[in-house]
Structures are given as structure tokens and as C-alpha cells.
Amino acid sequence: MNQPSVYSIGGSLQLNAPTYVWRSADDELYEQLMAGRFCYVLTSRQMGKSSLRVRTMARLQAADVACAFIDLTASGSIATPDQWYRGLLYRIFRMFPQVSAASWETEWTNHSTLPVVQRFGHLLETVLLPSLQQNIVIFIDEIEAVLSFEFRTDDFFAFIRACYNQRAENPIYRRLTFCLLGVTTPSDLIENRRLTPFNIGQAIQLNGLELQHARTKLTQGMAGKVNNPEQSLKEILAWTGGQPFLTQKICQLVGQHAEGHSSSLEDIIHRYIIKNWETQDDPEHLKTIRDRILYNPSQAIALLYRYQTILNSSVTVSNEPEDIELQLSGLVTCQNNRLIVANRVYQTIFNQHWIERQLDNIWEISNPADTFTQRDAASITKQYTIKLFTFNLVLITVATLSLYLHYGVFLGESRTQEFINCQDCLNNPGLVELFRLLILLSGASYMMDLRWKDQADDLRQSKSKKAKFFRWAILAIFICLFAALAWHNFFNAPQYLQAKYPSIDQQLNDPFDRFKEYQLPSIVYIAYGFIVYVPIALKFTVISVYAVTNDLTKNWQNNTKLKSNIAKVINTYSTIPNRLKQKTVRNLFAQYFLVFINIISPYTTLFIWVEAIRIFEDRVGLMTYTPDAQSFQKITYFFSASVLGILFVSLSQYLKALKTSSDALLRLQDENTSKFRTDNGLFQLLGRLIGSNVSFLLLFLIVLSNFLNVIVEKIAQAFSVL
Q1: What sections of the protein cross the membrane (predicted)?
Q2: Spatial CA neighbour of 213 closest among 242, 179, 256, 172
Q3: pLDDT tens for each residue of 255-277
């Protein structure tokens, strides 16, 4: 059965702990506080600050010095200045029962008009100091907690300095001093050097444990477990550099696992400390160091590179933030004005491989890149889909009824003759017009209400000058379209039919008959024309132009950002090795590629739809038009050419981005630049798009079929000539 361990791991050692090891700081802190000097112990975690404070308080109290202790982590970080200072007084006066709570609380309330720091000082001067005749030392531990407060605490540190300055005029302050302990630097706590108490205080240096003081304290738990406990302790200190937490922990492990002398010290350290250290680090020590180094990704890069330099060769200590932070983490220590890795355990765990792995992870997460502009994800809800379906169904129903009345009930004799005399026209043009409407509506609704919904919402709600201009343009074009539609149906078409078929017109003597022949078909047809031109053509034209200009701008901005980000990576971060910069350039291009696909993909769907309209009109739709109206086919060619132009511009921007990235990799001496350029070339891009997206596949097949169709027609014409 295992005996209880004499070693204490984690937390401060009790006053009578048998394994507490004396250090020079014990006497230095005690003597300085006895002399009434302000002291501070600012060093890394688990170096024994709290244990030192417990021992020093006991020695001071034994010398008739009144002591108070405040742990700032117990006060929380969410408090007003009034609550915080009052909480400090509460914990101070609680240590001295001779001071009644009512007296200081009444005094605090009576002076509520004073600033809180003045009230705090007033109560110490008028209540605390007169109530106690001996010297007073106030210990404040975890002082770094003030850095997380929502208010500035400069006044608190300025007050500590003021207490020292008032000693010349008010001797009562000679009996009051403070001792601050924590993991921070004076400059972090207060920036104003005129107000800081740290330049008039005494810094207490906490060094590692030494063999001459530790041999009688730390060997007792290893007696009977190893042949030579003192030699084992010497080897342990060689591994830990005297770090108190690690030393106590390894001594405990030796006492637990070295029985029978079958395991060497190195085996125990590797098995229970180094191997799988992240899972075995309990209580946490190594992970505390890791987390302090990696907490801020942008700072971590500089810390890791500075640590890498120290790991490879000791460096002269400086006041640079990286050196200070590394010492506060405990990972490095200062010896003879040189920074070295604190101990062999840290050197083994936080080695070159660990540094490279962390740099890879951090650099990938925090690489200095501006975010690429991309299309916002449209919110498509079930309710929205139902409303959209219902609205389109209403449009189709109204258009169907309009076509039925126009081509059926109210077609009229002259219009019937028009279609009979047109050799290319179909016998059932109404059905073809309905198919045309279905193709136009399905494509336009899909693009406007789904793929470009974010653009449509922005156009409708944005207060930008561009959006306002487009909204006014919609109104102006609507008025023009409505006027043109009315003019064609009520004036131009009837005049055309009267002039072309005068015999029919001469038979219509009754005004009502003339109305039924010429105006009524136009009236019932205008509903269909309105649906085609306004909810479909007008709306689609404006939204598409708005979306195209936005998307082309986004593509241009992304190219500019990619170029800027790559230049920043190459020129600004001189300490980053080319290996990481190469990875960053590739990552930036990969991000650009994803955003590029997100922006360009609607245009492949748009081209498929426009091509479907063109093929429909070319093969079937034009047969519903009179010869004068068949010039409409030119519009479909214009639409196809426009979409191809957009795709061409976008792809040219992509090729520019690829060239920028490839040139950067060449500058960074990337051996795989040629492969990168080949793998991301235009043909490879199209191959990926075709293989991963149905729209791209359909686009490819349509272009291919049209190309083959043109070739077949040319061959047929050549043979017909022969």
C-alpha cells in the first residue's frame, strides 16, 4: 500500500510543509518589508510566490507586524470602481477584528462624494492606521487580475506611491507598506512612470531551488526508493533547473515508481512527464506555459522565433517585450545577463519540432491577410419558397388565360390571316408562347429570386447612390415599356393589320366590330406582354446589371487584395521563413479560388438559360412571330455574347491572380511553382468545375453541341455546293 506523499504539487505550501525549501528570496523579502519598503515579486507561475508569501507573513506576524492578504482573483473582474475598492477594504479590515465593520463602512458612506481612490486612502489613514499600533504590510496576490478589469487601475498604483511619498510629511505612513505578487510586468500594470510605485520599490528575484538547501527537505520522500536520494535529487535538479513545481512533482514520481530500483530517473521523467505530456500534465504546468506563449497568435509568432533563437544559442537579455514575456512564461530564465531555456524538461518538450508545428498552425490561422470580398449567402426559407412558388403560379395562370383569350376566343380575322399567310408560323402559336413564358419565368425567377437574392435584397433596401440610381432606372424603364407596349398593341398593331388586310377592314362598319377585331385581342394579350416585359424582362435586366457590376467589382477587389496580401507576406514579415510564406501564398490563392467560384457560378447557370432561350427561339419560338418581329432573335445572341463576355473577364482576372501567386512562389524559391501553375491553370480549372458542378457540365455540353452543330452545317453547305 502506497504511503501518503510528503511532496506537495499545485497550490501554495502550507506553513508547516516539510518540503518547503528556503531560498535567498525568503530573507530578502522579509528584511525589505521589515524595513518598511514596498516590494513586488513578479515572476512566472508555479515558482513558489504564494508559498513565499505564506512563510513571510508568518515571520512578520511573529515579529509583531500586522499583515493583511488579498487575492485579486477572488474579487472577480466584473465590478465598478466603487465595488472594487470597497471589496479591498472589506478584506483588509476582515483581517483585523479590532476594527469594527460599522466604523469603516459608515466612514465610506459619509465620504461618498470623494473619488473612490481618495476614499480608500482616507479610510486607511483615519481608520486602519489609528486602530493598529504596529507596522502593517498588505500583501496583494495575483496582481495581474487588474489587467482584465473594465476600468483603469492606474490610480491604485499611484496611491501606493503616494503612501511612500507622504512618509516625509505624515510619519503614520511609515508604518504602512505593500507587497505585490503576480505574473506580469510593472509596465503592464501602469504605463505612467511618474506615478508608478515600481521605480521606488524593491523587486524580489525568485530563483530556482538549490541542492544545498533542498537536500534535507526533498530527499526524505525518496528514502528507501532509490540507492542514493541525494544523488537522485541532484539529477532531478539538473533536469528541472530548480523549478519548484517540476522538482516536487518529479521527486514524487520517483518516490512512487522507483521502488525496486528498476526504473532510472530518466525513464521516469520520459514516461510520466515528457511522453504524451499534454494528457499527463496534471495539475497543469506545461500546458500553462504553452497557453501563455500561444494565447495571442500575432504575438506568439514573435515569441516562438525569439524562443527558437534562445533554444539554439543563449542570447543577451534585453528589455524587448518578447524577452520579458518569455521570462514571465517560465520557459526561459536569465543567468549572467544571458537568456537560456529554463531547464532540460522544457528543452526536451518545447523543442525545434514543437516550435515548427506551432508556427505552422498559428501562421495558417492568423496569416496577415485582408478578407476577400464574397457573395453573401442568401437566406432561403420555406416560407419564402412557398411565396415565390405561389407568385409564379399566379403569373403563369394569368398569362395562360391571356394567351387563351388572345389566340382562341378573341384572335380576330386579320390576325388569323396573318398567321395563315406566315409559312414559318405554327398552327398553335399560343402554346409555344406559353412554353416561352415558362422558360423565361423559370430561369429569371431562379436567377433573381434564388441565385441573386442577396443582390435583389440589397438593390431594394440599400441606401447607396448606386442602388437608388437603379431603383429610379426601374421606374423610368417601366414607364417607357408600358407606353411602348400600349402603343404597339393599341395603335401600331391595328394600323399594321388595317393596312395589310383592307378587305377585312372594309367589312367592319360597326365600331364595336372594329373594337373586337383590333383592340380586344390587344387588351387580352397585354396581360401576357406585361408579365413578360415587367416582372420578367425589366426586373431581370435591372437586377442582372446590378449584380454583374457588383460581382465584377468584387472580383477586381479580390485580385487587388490577393496582390496586396501576398506583397505583405513577402515584404513585411522578414522573420518568417520562406517555407511558411510559401504555404501562406498557397492558402491565400486557395481562399481566392473558393470566393471566385462562389461569384462566378451563377453566370454558368445564366449562360445555360440564355442558350436555352436562344435555341428555343431559333428552333421553335420564332415561328410564332410575324416576319417583322423575327429580329428578336438578335437579342438572344446579344444576351449570350454578354454572358460569355462576363465569363471571359472573370476568367482573365483569375489568370491574373494565378500569375501573381506563381510569381510570388518563384520569389520565395518554391521548387513546386511549375506544378502549382499547372495544377491551377485554366484547363484544369474548367476540368474541376465541369467535374464538380452540374451547371458547368451542362454549359460545357451546350457549347460543345453548338460548336459541332456549326461544323455540321458548314459541311452540309459545302456538300450542297458540290
Answers
A1: 388-410, 469-487, 523-548, 589-615, 635-655, 685-704
A2: 242
A3: 888 765 556 889 999 999 999 99
Residue 152 phi/psi, 5-degree rounding, is: -75, 145
Q: Where are the beta strands (DSSP E) in 109-191?
A: 136-141, 176-182
Strand ranges (DSSP E) for 406-517? Answer: none
Instruction: Tell me how far apart the alpha carbons of residues 78 and 14 are, in angstroms, rounded to a whole number.
Output: 31
Q: Is the full-model pTM beyond 0.70?
A: no
Report the distance separating Cα 660 and Cα 656, nearest Å. Answer: 6
pLDDT of the residue at 450: 79
Dump pLDDT digits (tens) for 69-87: 999 887 766 788 888 999 8
Instruction: Give the separation between CA 244 and CA 46, rounded to whole angstroms.
Output: 7
pLDDT in tens, 503-543: 666 666 677 766 677 667 777 777 887 788 778 877 877 88
The position carrying cell 409555344 is 432
Cβ of 385: how many Cβ atoms within 10 Å? 12
Contact between residue 214 and residue 253 where contact means Cβ atoms under 8 Å apart: no
Mean pLDDT confidence for 113-140: 91
Helix (H, G, I), strand (E, B) or coil at 237: helix
What integer is the mean pLDDT of 652-658? 90
- Angle subtended at Cα 538 by Cα 643 and Cα 609, rounded to the nearest 5 degrees: 35
Lowest model confidence (mean pLDDT) among 115-129, 265-279, 326-340, 450-464: 450-464
| 3 state SS of 132 | coil
Amino acid occupying residue 162: A
One-letter amino acid at 683 equals F
Pairing relation of β-strands 338-341 and 315-316?
antiparallel
Q: Cα–Cα distance between 80 and 119 in angstroms, integer?
A: 15
Look-up: residue for cell 528589455?
319
> Looking at residue 12, what DSSP letter applies?
P
Residue 131 C-alpha cell reads as 486602530
Q: In terms of Cα–Cα distance, which of 77, 76, 81, 163 is closest to 116?
A: 81
Per-residue pLDDT band for 402 (boundaries 50, 70, 90) equals: confident
Crossing angle between the packed helical segments 465-487 and 539-571, to the nearest 10 degrees: 150
Q: What is the dihedral of CA 602, 603, 607, 613, to 10 degrees?
A: 60
DSSP one-letter code for 630: G
